[in-house]
Amino acid sequence: MPMRSPRRAQLFRGTQMPTESEPFEPQVIPPRPGADYSAIGQNNQPFAVLYEGDYETPWDGTAVAVRAHSTALAAAGLPVLLKSRASRVGRDPVHLVGVSDEVRRQVAGLTDTSASVHFPLIRHVVVSGPTQLAQIILPRGAIGNADIEAEMRVRSWLYASTIVYSVWERDRVDPEIAKQLSRVADNWVPCDQNRRMLIASGVPEEKVHVVPHPYDPQDPICLLTRRQANAEERRYYSIGRWEPRKAYHELIGAFLMAFRASDPAWLTIKYSGSGFWPDYPSVTDTLDIWAQHAGVRERGKEQELLIGVRVQKRQIKRRL
User: Fold this and answer.
1) Cis peptide bond upstream of 217, omega within 30
2) Using an 8 Å Cβ cutoff, are 30 and 42 in contact?
3) What is the mean pLDDT of residues 303-307?
4) Tens-digit pLDDT profile for residues 173-216
5) Which long-range contacts (CB under 8 A, 24 or more apart) does 35-38 make?
6) What is the DSSP secondary-structure string of 110-144?
7) What is d(CA 318, CA 320) in angstroms, rounded to the nearest whole number?
8) Residue 29 pLDDT > 60, yes or no?
């Protein structure tokens, strides 16, 4: 979707943490019309949406999505505070490698705020299990050593204030994950398939909403959708990790058996990682295996297949 904020008026349903002497009463805080929140660190706003997700890695898909969603909310006029959990660039701590100038430019003004109240709490996560998800919703140190009654009130507030944004490549989730997701205020997913899957797994229907990833219509990659179709050519593109579930070894074999070197057909695979999976061919092994396979129609196309390094979007666009 273009850069705009979904369900904007429903975001602010509460204002502060409950105290023992003051019960928590939800209320609506409308955004201020015409206000510029693109650099909220310079504005004296009393509240801000807390958008939590690991955003520092330039090329990681989740990091790209976190930056896109948080800046889209800010562009819609909502004060946003962007926070990272892991504070890593790839596998390296941020304090060792730093954040790139491009990432800093994209999130300028979102990583600092004078707001004293953060609501709601949007957790943009890659869920690996129920324990990890529970720790994200209830971070260590968030509850403290209060008495049991106060602790339960804080737990309830955190669940009632949390929106989980998650992306799934499966047809069901663990019942314990569904149980955790059922307790939060809302679940955002990028597509209808994810929504149907969570509902079928037991998450209440009214708590699952599709919020597509924002995009810039002027992005060079978007120009590919406006090209005229060429019936004489076949161009295939895949991007992801080199691992069994992506089936790149099988994809390359199918392509090499289907087309000759002289055919107007191209397969481009933008991949990361190789050789980490036992009994699954690496990139080099794959090319060697298919080069000797009797079903390959003609040698000569295999060296045009793979991009295993970081490249810019305009370079990918030229190949497609």
Assistant:
1) no
2) no
3) 62
4) 999 999 999 999 999 999 999 999 999 999 999 999 999 998 87
5) 35/77, 37/74, 37/77, 37/78, 37/79, 37/80, 38/74, 38/75, 38/108, 38/109
6) TS----SEEEEEEEEE----HHHHHHHHS-TTSST
7) 6
8) no
123, two tokens:
């957790």
d(CA 138, CA 159): 8
- Sequence letter at residue 161: S
Integer Cα distance of 194 and 164 in angstroms: 13
Helices (H), the chain: 61-75, 94-97, 101-106, 130-137, 148-161, 175-183, 192-200, 248-258, 283-291, 313-319
39 band by pLDDT with thresholds 50, 70 and 90: very low
Alpha-helical segments (H) within 162-260: 175-183, 192-200, 248-258
- In a 13 Å sphere around the CA of 236, the CA atoms on its Cβ side amount to 16
The CA distance from 86 to 107, in Å, is 17
Euclidean distance between CA atoms 100 and 56, whole angstroms? 8
SS3 per-residue string spanning 234-272: EEEEEEEECCHHHCHHHHHHHHHHHCCCCCCEEEEEEEE
Residue type, 221: I
Taking the C-alpha atoms of residue 298 and residue 300, their distance in angstroms, rounded to an integer, is: 7
Side chain identity, residue 170:
R
Residue 100 and residue 58: Cα distance in Å, rounded? Answer: 7
